[in-house]
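Interim report, section 4.2 (structural modelling).
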Amino acid sequence: MRKSNAAIKRCKTMSTLQKILGGKWKLEILYYIGVEDVHRFGALRRHLVEITESSLTKQLRELEADGFLHRHDFHEVPPHVEYTLTELGESFLSVLHYMKAWGEKNL
Amino acid sequence: MRKSNAAIKRCKTMSTLQKILGGKWKLEILYYIGVEDVHRFGALRRHLVEITESSLTKQLRELEADGFLHRHDFHEVPPHVEYTLTELGESFLSVLHYMKAWGEKNL
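Predicted structure of the assembly:
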């Protein structure tokens, strides 16, 4: 039975997930940092071949603001910054693994 | 132990998933069609409050092209078109449910 329009409200959880993950590179950035242990800006950029520097910077900042990434500045010269998953980001890895397994089977 | 750069290749599955799901509304569109039984353009637009007509049209076409959605035109006047999940789209529901459960617990 279809639900009436009145009965369906915007699902807040899905809306939040969409906002966090909707970026053009978010899933892949989390995957490379969390699963493939790629922690530095330049290395991430090399993996995400088509990404621009400004786009990667923006997406990393958003993931940091959303609590998924931690940015650690070693205060070295030349600059040395590493990105790692926060506790929230680590817990999201289960979703990435589930999604990847589905993709390997179905795509 | 960190993997060397040479050892890490772009993960094709993650890259494909990113391309399919990276749109600003893809997850929510699949959720409303597949989980909340919202099948018509106007109803989808009302649920995704901020989406424009052209953006919804584009995202629906992409999801159809990627094999997740089926577009059924009833050839009626006034026009009556419904969107439903394909078999591939139905199988993706397990990922959406897993992701939503994670979000409800962690976000």
